[in-house]
Amino acid sequence: MANVSSLNTTAAGVDAVAPDVSGPRGRRPRRTLSRRNIILYGTLFVAALYYLLPLYVMVVTSLKGMPEIRMGNIFSPPMEITFEPWVKAWAEACTGLNCDGLSRGFWNSVRILVPSVVVSIFVASVSGYSLANWRFKGSELFFSILIIGAFIPYQVMIYPVVIALRELGIYGTLTGLVIVHTIFGMPILTLLFRNYFSSLPVELFKAARIDGAGFWQIYLKIMLPMSLPIFVVAMIIQITGIWNDFLFGVVFTRPDTYPMTVQLNNIVNSVQGVKEYNVNMAATLLTGAVPLIVYFVSGRLFVRGIAAGAVKG
Questions:
Q1: In the 8-state DSSP scheme, what is residue 71?
Q2: Number of CB atoms found within 10 A of residue 41's CB
Q3: Which residue would you say has higher pLDDT here, 237 or 3?
Q4: What 8-state DSSP symbol labels residue 219?
Q5: CA 106: distance to chain centroid?
Q6: Labelling 124: which of 25, 72, 83, 172 has CA 20 to 30 A away?
Q7: What are 91-140's pLDDT values in tens digits?
Q8: What is the rounded CA–CA span in Å between residue 313 and residue 302?
């Protein structure tokens, strides 16, 4: 009887503490409106507002007529939307002696951009692959020279490059500007590709070498399919830098081959006639549309490629 009573007491004790044991476990969830979240999201909101407010002003101004702009309220939405400023910026605005808008500069920029991006990325990817996997005598010295070249100010090299292009007979042509953008984009792109290829498993390279694969076979069939993120990074860097460039465009080309950014400067800084702010805003948005579209389409791969290609030396 004593044993039965003891067992009943034990069972009752277990039942008494059972609800406490079966309760929720783990860390208590954080409150949505905690001080930390308020500071974090408040800071992000202020930063987003700081960058988006000028863009909003540009868009609404480009959709207004000049009489409405003269009323002075730059933040108000347009009372009557008009796309005439966009049409004028593209096809009619004067960019110096020519009054054909940004259309000519746009196609000049495209003819500069495409070969510069393709050639620079191809050469840099092969160079980075060689420096990462095919070590040769003097490779470290070559890599050090590339690193130094990535941080030399462009302005230091302008005069020697002008002389070189003049001697080659391509100064003032789109071909000369393509060569300039390709050369100046090489150091930083080679650094990114070299670091990215160094982060890939070396066992893949060794296995391919054992199976008899050569330089181009390993590059095209193994390294290239695994390198989409870093190629997207290189593409965005080159497109943004080349398309938005003003200095090289105004130095190494002539009025008939000016890129879009140089023509935009001529439109905005024109001192003849009435200052048409709506046309200036539309021209600015048209000029910045290409790199913005490229970034928004491939932004996720850009972040992945930067994280993979910039942290390992």
A1: T
A2: 11
A3: 237
A4: I
A5: 19
A6: 172
A7: 888 877 777 888 899 999 999 999 999 999 999 999 889 888 887 777 77
A8: 19
Dist CA 129 CA 250 (whole Å): 34
Beta bridge partners of 253: 172
Q: CB-based contacts of 102: which residues, under 8 Å, 6+ apart?
A: 89, 90, 93, 95, 260, 263, 264, 267, 283, 286, 287
CATH no. for residue 209? Answer: 1.10.3720.10
Task: Please give the Cα distance from 48 to 41 (Å, whole number).
Answer: 10
Q: What is the pLDDT of residue 111?
A: 94
End-to-end Cα distance, the chain? 78
Q: Do 161 and 111 have their domain in common?
A: yes
Q: 161, 182, 194, 233: which is closest to 312 by C-alpha?
A: 194
Token reading at 158: 């302008």
Cα–chain-centroid distance for residue 141? 29
Together in a domain, 194 and 303? yes
Residue type at 29? P
- Which range marks the domain in which residue 304 is found? 104-273+281-309
DSSP line for 278-289: HHHHHHHHHHHH
User: Residue 228: what residue type?
Assistant: L
Q: Is residue 90 domain-resident?
A: no
